Amino acid sequence: MRIASGGIQHETNTFSTTPTTLADFIRDSQLGPQLEGGNAIIRRYAGTGSIHGGYIDGAQAAGLELIPLLTAMACPAGVVVQQAFDTILGWFLERLESVLPVDGVLLDLHGAMVTEDYQDAEGAFIDAVRKLVGRDMPIVVTLDLHANITEQMARLADVIIGFDTYPHIDMNERGCEAVELLARIVRGQVSPIQAYRKLPLITMPPMQCTLREPMQSLMKQVHQMEAGPEILTATVAMGFPFADIHHTGVSVLVTANGDHELATANADELASMVWNLREDLQPQLATIEDVIQFVDQHPDDGLTIFADGSDNPGGGAPCDGTVALQAMIDAHVKGGVVGILFDPETAAQAHTAGVGKPIQVRLGGKTDNRHGNPVQGEAHVKTLSDGVFTYRGPMFQGVEDNLGPTAILVIGGVEVVVSSERRQCLDREMLRIAGIELSNRRLLVVKSAVHFRADFGAVAAHIFDADTPGIHRPDFNAYDYQRVRRPIYPLDHNVSWP
């Protein structure tokens, strides 16, 4: 059995003013100027906690021939330039056509990508693949938990499998599941029938976390449903609310083995459960001033984490926000760390000066005017690093990445990890390589909404969701939605469903 695989990953924040270009995909994918496939993908992802890692591992375990054609990703930011999308899609289609015939196709997509021409970029991608391989070729798609799943995606794919976890620690597992299910389809052992439901509901990242309620109970129900012999897979996609498009919001998919009524009944049951949790899915936020006061009142509790999700680069924010940092300086916080702040100009300045040297900085606040002003003053260069690291925590485990030239600066008594590449702080190794161990720190500001919990959660005594400004702020009042379908909860309160 020969299976082709590939895809493109981007979570598009339409409120960002920074477009996503082909150069961004080439830089972040780390697979060469034309996104090399084949053995290059296998070398990078085999045995790792990634979707393609799951494809590779699953195919090997099942004795299948996997043909990885292309995998592209770029750090979340603004709308994808159409030329970038068209180029990458063109490369994938050319490579797919060159290896036909195959028995099936695996597509590693995100589900929340927006281009200049397409609100539903993944739907356009699947459509192009479907037109090439025909109606009878089985296509199994894996999507992020934050996917804004559309009717087009569901109609064109034989099966859609979404992540079950946030933080996304089950990527390898879902990739293996996709391989196994595709193989069963090809062998004629199962006949998938998908039921799709779109809810008039949008939710924010903090409460989408599957390490806390109500998502824990919801995912338990998903897994109980999947334990039934005739349910092949079930997905709850919580959506990506920072994409102002028609299809933004929560979706439910249930795939049964040849039984349309069973798929429909289970999809309705699952969708109703999500709808009944709509009020519980709204976050509670804390200001940095309140958290500083809390830390002062609990000096012996251990590490407190302030999750600055409003400036989360994993959701398209610039990662150079300074609101929390400035408040910590003003309050003379001891044992405070900010990680990671993206400022290649200041990182280069630190590397030029060298360890132990004072430098005059204009730190952060350079991308836009929505995340705080630059912090100005004298900083001390504490350590320097080349920024190369390997994820050791549960998410992306085994994948190598690069923060670029990195420095720890001490300004106003606060340690700031300054990077040259924009990355979400979701793994303790990202701090260790810069010289930060958390055992004697009191307050850590992470540029992350939820993913950090997978690795940092074990060392945190307290975690607060940040009330700070930004384009990833978990507060619907902060956004002027123009394209989202209406009525929709909680933008509208008189919403009934079904």
Structure, described:
- The protein has 498 residues and is α/β, with parallel strands linked by helices.
- The protein folds into 2 domains: 2-276, Response regulator (Rossmann fold); 288-473, no CATH class.
- It contains 15 helices and 18 strands.
- The protein has helices spanning 22-29, 39-45, 51-62, 82-99, 121-133, 151-156, 171-186, 205-208, 215-226, 260-276, 288-297, 323-330, 344-353, 429-432, 453-456; strands at 2-9, 65-73, 104-108, 139-143, 159-162, 192-198, 231-237, 251-257, 304-307, 336-342, 358-363, 375-385, 388-390, 400-402, 406-411, 414-419, 443-446, 462-465.
- The two termini are 42 Å apart.
- The model has no long low-confidence stretch (mean pLDDT 97).
